[in-house]
Amino acid sequence: MLETIQITADYLINQTTLKPVVGIILGTGLGGLVEEIEIEKSISYEEIPNFPVSTVEGHSGRLIFGTINNTPILAMQGRFHYYEGYDMKEVTFPVRVMKQMGIETLFVSNASGGLNPDYVVGDIMVINDHINMFGDNPLIGRNNNKLGPRFPDMSEPYSKRLIAEALMIGNDNGIDLKQGVYVGTTGPTFETPAEYKMFRILGADAVGMSTVPEVIVARHMDMQCFGISIITDSGVPGQIVEVSHEEVQEVAAAAEPKMTMVIKELLGRI
Q1: Nearest residue to 184 (alpha-carbon basis) of 56, 75, 67, 88
Q2: Contact 231, 119 (CB under 8 A)
Q3: How far apart are CA 256 and CA 180, in angstroms?
Q4: Total tally of structural domains belonging to the chain
Q5: How many angstroms separate the CA atoms of 12 and 193, rounded?
Q6: What is the pTM of this model?
Q7: I need a surface site. Which of 86, 89, 144, 145 has the fewest CB within 10 A?
Q8: Alpha carbon distance 90, 159 (integer Å)
Q9: For this UniProt entry, which residues form the secretion signal (predicted)?
């Protein structure tokens, strides 16, 4: 696996002289952040050795080298999901590659269902913790100590410093950022009312189908993480209505400018 990671990392390093310090994974309907990037190089996933290919509408499938707010970044416009049939190591492979390229900080974004009754559709939640309900873990199997420890600590999955900075940015710009716990599930079905209720009882504020595997692998390699969710539908009893992927994309796109502002400002403080 290490050899495969190195082959991909070497390929990408040779594509540009830019040295990214932050990796960004853009979720469903959240590709608009790309408009803020001063693009140095854009590469389709199909061109990258050993890279999976995104099959989900709303995930463009390209890797972008560039700068945001003078910070060199590497952005994934489109991620890979467990429900697409990829295994956990394939889902998290790009994060391994980022670390091998010298990237020490990972930003992840997603669209999620709101479980906290204080949230409304369109709210933005900074993730301060997560619950893994995938029934799987990307670290299962023989551990390579060159990548990280057998039993990585998860007492701070999301950087407290970056969370504090983000909340300050929101306050300074009149953006009402929530913060809470994200629960990750396999999908691809949206949750039943009973499942929404169970996740809320477990302590989750939002639910989605991504993010958790990537953050586990990032923390395994001692990368600091920042996660942010756009609440695109409600799982609160009495507010649950039929929802489609297209509607999720529309809500995410409408709320995205605020999320983009927060990420842009935060990148300037790395």
Answers
A1: 88
A2: yes
A3: 18
A4: 1
A5: 44
A6: 0.94
A7: 145
A8: 25
A9: none
